[in-house]
Specification:
Blueprint: E1 2-7, E2 12-21, E3 24-29, E4 35-39, E5 46-55, E6 58-67, E7 71-73, E8 77-82, E9 85-96, E10 99-101, E11 103-105, E12 111-116, E13 119-127, E14 132-140, E15 144-146, E16 150-153, E17 156-165, E18 170-171, E19 177-179, E20 183-190
Parallel strand pairs: 5-12, 13-20
Antiparallel strand pairs: 1-2, 2-3, 3-4, 5-6, 7-11, 8-9, 9-10, 9-12, 13-14, 15-19, 16-17, 17-18, 17-20
Amino acid sequence: MFITAHCPVCNDETEHEVVSESRDLLIRCTACGNHQRVPKEREPQSMLIKAIVSREGTSQVCGIELSEEDECNVGDHLVAECGDDAFGVEVSSIESGEKRVQRARATDITTLWTRAIEQVVVKVSIHDGRKTVPVYMECDGEQEFVVNEVYTASKKRFRITHLKLRDGPLMRKEGWKAVAHRIKRIYGTRL
């Protein structure tokens, strides 16, 4: 194995061959043959962080593996391991000690509160002129929904009039779109 390191004889950054590895590395300069010991770089440890994964009305305790150097933010997409299963989740809240924060280093995180985003249930309100019917659509978390496009849910065809997103805005303009895991509710008119 070869690494680049400062050689005190050449007084330059040169390529060195790793002769032996223990607590330190014994390296030899390929230009002048000088031997020296250099500290071995410490590899960051991985840690399993407690994660509460919500899936449309149910929650389970899982784990998310992060490096101790990692920083986690609300809105990050990570992989949660629940027993033998692993699936994509979005961080909705971070608990650090007794506080909820927007961002934290992995070593400071007590619990990650997440929601599954691979398979989601999208709530749809279909209006037919007299009454509004609630419908639930199970779909892939990355499926796009477009304002003014026609879709079918529970054998009901409807045209989307607007999309309410989880993080706030109401999308009404024709052609605007959002992926399923970001949508709080879809509003449409029955065809």
